[in-house]
Design goal:
heterodimer; A: about 375 residues; alpha/beta; Alpha-Beta Plaits; seven-stranded mixed sheet; two-stranded antiparallel sheet; 11 helices; B: about 350 residues; Rossmann fold; eight-stranded mixed sheet; globular
């Protein structure tokens, strides 16, 4: 008599099919073992937006009644396993306004396992992940985050590998044999079965203590109750006045939405070379997220609370290498680059040069069916 | 009350005088649609909201029908709007604009509000505008005694509900309702609806109709300013590249819009009191100063056209060539020019 649940946290649209495949796989495998399961996306994440963190769940029970009992909760909050399909999600997720920033391990039960797709070291990830206050385990799949488009799935076996790893860290939910059987049945691909088995064999989890992790308190705000909401669904607008920020007199920092900041959407961030900036305004004018603060000296400082990492600023900047998109993993905080530059220009140059030297390929953009298979064949040839 | 009634109608149809901004350095810093909206990375519809609100300024009421720019901007008690904003139903962008403009006028006439010109803007998506809201928009464009601007942000599909085909979707594009298959490659066989041209041609009293694109941000803002200054009901059709539904890397949002203009697929023009002017790169194309890029440059950058074979690209190119070579005004009046 037991129920187990798996939470899959992923990047909206880019990993929609990946998350669906994982949850479907869990449910079908549970059935093979004579259990009953169901998978569902979180209503509030729909409609999904590119990059914005979203969740799907798979719940498995021994009996129908147990499953019903579990599903009566709005959102499973005591999960055996949380799967983060992209390691930058470890910095916390803000999928919709009423959460503020939610630590990636928030809905994981004590002693549960956080399964992450990453090339980073476990210790580096633990520095990103908020301190849980309870011990849990961390397991890694060595892979780059698998991003597809809306129409075409990048079938790089990440789904099979995560399912194999899941069977290792939570055998009480689904076993590896059932998983392999389902992969064979659903995808009719022996290679995927091998990927799942290999991943099962290779996956090791390590304990994370209650005290380990990022000490930062994730941002939150006062939520209105049913009785404090205003009639007619009135939402208070944002102030038209600029923000008063110390050291920013003469510049312009717009007041921003305090209940949705969007930075957890980011997988890349712009690094700006203030020495070569010509103040042409194009990044500021073309940023769909209004993330550029105007500094007192007329430069444009990308506000890291508001930037969602689309990369339009890099694309429109007319100066070579003035704006460079860098993998979000390379950064520990949302500090202002301009302030860093003002304080120590030489030091900033060193910092910037180091950051922009590491530019992993952008993986999004699989346009036609079979494109990934073609690329993989070409690479191995 | 008699003195109130005797006041001339002109008092109430005054508009704000919004001069065009010359160059991005003259654009004010204030934002009226700020950060913190739940749109996709690289969302150009959010960008046109930002530009539109900036161009209109603080004394503005904005309304919006259901769509991405409603759902992403105001769900869960959270909003990036600075100026007053109100939601209206999918097909009722036009009626909401007329109602609001009329309401403001009545409030002012009754002395409940200070008399001042307030901009009324309603936005709708291509689904809410070109499909469901067409009749209400048409009706609004005949209410010449109200000042209002209808801005249709066109991401060429029902993008909010995960990309279903709309009357504004381009020929052949992949969508949830038109997935290419083995037996039939091209599922959406309708050519895109020509909204701006239709609005201009069919509403002789409408003083201003324009097409804009976020990739020409200064022109887009000045177009909004002109529409609000000229008075009466006005219409702007904005093409917004959509990384989610068009399937490209969000960083190319600006570039894809530029390509739409440079390939001639999206002609930029304004129709002011019946006089048609092409502007920006479209004018240079018309004058022969700029050669149109092949449409493949635009189409092949997007996953929604990935199933196209040479034949499809040729068909698309042929339609665009025809528009530029045979139509009286590209994208507006499909009458062969006299030889």
């Amino acid at each position: 008599m037991s129920t187990g649940s798996v939470e899959v946290v992923y990047r909206g649209i880019f990993q929609k099919t990946l998350a669906k495949n994982i949850c479907r796989g869990v449910v079908f495998a549970a059935k093979k073992e004579g259990k009953i399961g169901t998978a569902f996306g979180r209503y509030s994440d729909s409609p999904e937006r590119n990059g914005i963190p979203a969740k799907q769940f798979a719940v498995v029970s021994d009996t129908h009644d147990e499953l019903q009992e579990h599903l009566a909760r709005y959102e499973p909050d005591n999960n055996d396993v949380t799967i983060a399909c992209d390691d930058t999600l470890c910095k916390g997720i803000e999928s919709w306004a009423w959460y503020g920033l939610q630590p990636i391990n928030k809905l994981l039960k004590k002693g549960g396992t956080l399964l992450v797709t990453s090339f980073q070291s476990p210790n580096k990830l633990i520095n990103f992940i908020h301190r849980k206050g309870e011990p849990y385990n961390l397991a890694l799949i060595r892979a780059q985050a698998s991003f597809s488009g809306l129409w075409v799935y990048k079938d790089d076996h990440t789904d099979a590998r995560l399912l194999g790893a899941l069977a290792k860290v939570a055998p009480h939910i689904v076993g590896i044999d059932a998983i392999c059987e389902v992969i064979e049945e659903q995808w009719k691909d022996d290679l995927k079965v091998i990927s799942a088995r290999k991943s099962f064999d290779a996956t090791k989890s390590q304990p994370v203590s209650a005290e380990q992790g990022n000490e930062e308190v994730p941002f939150s705000f006062e939520k209105p109750g049913w009785k404090t909401m205003e009639e007619g669904l009135v939402i208070r607008g944002i102030s038209a006045e600029k923000q008063v920020v110390a050291g920013r007199d003469g510049g312009y920092v717009p007041t921003r939405n305090a209940t949705f900041k969007k930075y957890s959407t980011r997988t890349m961030r712009p690094v700006i070379n203030f020495d070569t900036c010509t103040k042409c305004t194009l990044c500021w004018l073309n940023c769909p997220d209004t993330c550029f603060d105007i500094t007192p000296d007329g430069l444009y400082d990308a506000n890291m609370d508001a930037c969602c990492g689309c990369g339009v600023c890099e694309a429109v900047c007319p100066v070579a290498d003035c704006v460079t998109m860098v993998n979000e993993e390379a950064f520990d905080d949302n500090a202002s680059q301009w302030e860093m530059w003002v304080k120590d220009k030489k030091g900033y140059e060193t910092w910037m040069t180091e950051k922009i030297s590491d530019q992993p390929a952008r993986t999004h953009g699989f346009h036609h069916v079979g494109q990934y298979a073609e690329e993989a064949t070409n690479e191995s040839a | 009350m008699s003195d109130v009634i005797e006041e001339s109608l002109e008092d109430y149809i005054k508009t704000q005088v919004l001069e065009p901004w010359k160059g991005p350095k003259n654009v004010p810093e204030q934002e009226y649609f700020t950060s913190g909206h739940r749109t996709c990375q690289g969302c150009e519809s959010a960008q046109i909201m930002k530009l539109m609100a900036k161009a209109a300024g603080p004394r503005t009421v904005i309304l919006g029908s259901t769509g991405c720019m409603y759902v992403a901007n105001t769900t869960y008690y959270s909003t990036p709007w600075v100026v007053p904003w109100m939601h209206t139903q999918l097909g009722s962008a036009g009626s909401a604009a007329v109602g609001t403009a009329a309401g403001l006028k009545v409030q002012m006439r009754k002395g409940k509000m200070a008399k001042e010109p307030i901009n009324v803007i309603v936005f709708c998506g291509d689904g809410g505008g070109a499909d469901m809201g067409l009749s209400a928009i048409s009706a609004a464009l005949q209410h010449t005694h109200y000042n209002l601007l209808i801005l249709m942000y066109d991401n060429e599909s029902y993008a909010n509900t995960d990309i279903q085909v709309s009357g504004s979707s381009p020929w052949g594009a992949n969508s949830t309702f038109s997935p290419p298959g083995k037996a039939r490659r091209i599922m959406n066989r309708r050519w895109k609806k020509n909204m701006a041209g239709m609005m201009a041609a069919g509403h002789p009293d409408c003083k201003y109709v324009a097409t804009v694109c976020t990739s020409a941000p200064m022109e887009a803002m000045n177009s909004v300013r002109k529409a609000l200054s000229i008075g009466g009901p006005t219409f702007i059709h904005s093409l917004d590249p959509c990384p989610k539904g068009w399937d490209y890397d969000p960083m190319f949002s600006h570039e894809i819009g530029e390509l739409a203009i440079e390939t001639g697929i999206w002609p930029l023009y304004e129709i002011e009191e019946g006089k048609i002017t092409m502007y920006g790169k479209s004018r240079r194309i018309l004058r022969g100063q700029l050669k149109r890029k092949p449409v493949a440059d635009y189409l092949m950058r997007q996953g929604r056209f990935a199933h196209f074979i040479d034949e499809d690209i040729e068909y698309f190119q042929g339609k665009i060539d025809e528009m530029w070579e045979k139509w009286l005004i590209p994208g507006v009046i499909p009458i062969a020019a006299p030889a």
